[in-house]
Amino acid sequence: MFVLSRPHGTVRGRGVRRAFADAAAARAALSTGAARAITGAIPFDPADAAALVEPGLLEFDDAPLTPTPPTPRQVVSMTTHPDPRTHRDRVVAAIKQIADGVVDKVVLARAVDIVVRPGVEITELLGALAGGNVDRNAFAVDVGAVTGDASWLLGSSPEVLLRKQGRVVTCSPYAGSARRSDDPAADRAAAEALASSSKDLAEHRFVVDYLRDRLAPLSSDLDAPSTPEVRSTGEIWHLATPIRATLRDPSVTALDLAALLSPTPAVCGTPSDVAAELIRDVEEPRRLYGGAVGWCDAAGDGEWMVTIRCLRLAADRESLRTWAGGGIVAQSDPQDELDETTAKLATVLNALGVEHA
Length: 357
Ligand SMILES: C=C(O[C@H]1C=CC=C(C(=O)O)[C@@H]1O)C(=O)O
What we know:
- Helix content is 30%, strand content 34%.
- The chain has helices spanning 23-32, 84-99, 122-131, 144-147, 184-195, 198-215, 254-261, 272-282, 334-352, and strands at residues 2-6, 9-14, 18-20, 37-42, 51-54, 57-61, 74-81, 105-117, 138-142, 152-155, 160-165, 168-172, 174-179, 219-223, 229-232, 236-240, 243-247, 269-270, 292-297, 302-306, 310-313, 319-328.
- Ligand ISC is lined by residues 107, 109, 159, 174-177, 238, 266-267, 308-309, 323-327, 344.
- Belongs to the isochorismate synthase family.
């Protein structure tokens, strides 16, 4: 099964006609008409395995998922990779590499392995993920349909990599973050400070410039405002820029575009190849985290989210891994960057119904 809930509706893929661990094979099947639709996830590193399927049926519902309250759960164990101090050290090293001119921006992430009880039921967690944000965003991908390991990828990403309808492509890159507050005045002040933070505006600009550079050669027109908006999830304020382009060639599919654009500097960095290598050198393989989750129909239309604020749930339904990353730029502060990852982890922890600081 595949589910993507968005404010404008929910897409469900039911059944599996064919599974693809190779995104290029899925793209080819779609463009030759051998596959009528593709749903699933592409990895952060294009060399890793995708979790894509041709579903038996693709269903559209014009409402987002109905939110459900999280089920209270106990944490049996929790370990972070790397530990917080090592993450901070990696940020220090990245800031030095930026100062030395090796890279302009790199997104460093940490993973958290958690065992929870009671175990997770997919539909229930999806409802809790949808309930945690204003847009009702949530996704679930049956990764086991491709890998055979009965694992799932679930999450609530705020970030639209792309949506394609006919020739029109829209993107909504997110980069630049501030933790929200329960106090309305402090919450508003945090949003205002983010909107004028030169560090966050610089961090955001790398993503917009990258998307513009990749989309421009394919587009007859492209609009990307020079000033980002401030958007919120349940836990965080983000800088976001609505981008709109018109494709010259209507045969380019949403999956083609996902492969072209992912991973953006919201999850990788600038220049992309240098940042990807730095990430590969220090982090455990991200696999599907930092890639893209979405669907594409026979007409080439579809929608792909950046795979963040997500978890990979193991077959036992009690063991899971979640991740949080942050963009490191010249003005980054190591402790702030560590705290930002902690704030981002709250999206998944809240939906799981576990107590956390
Ligand atoms: C890499 C993540 O967030 C990205 C998206 C929005 C804001 C980000 C930031 O401010 O660093 C990140 O670029 C993550 O949540 O794991």
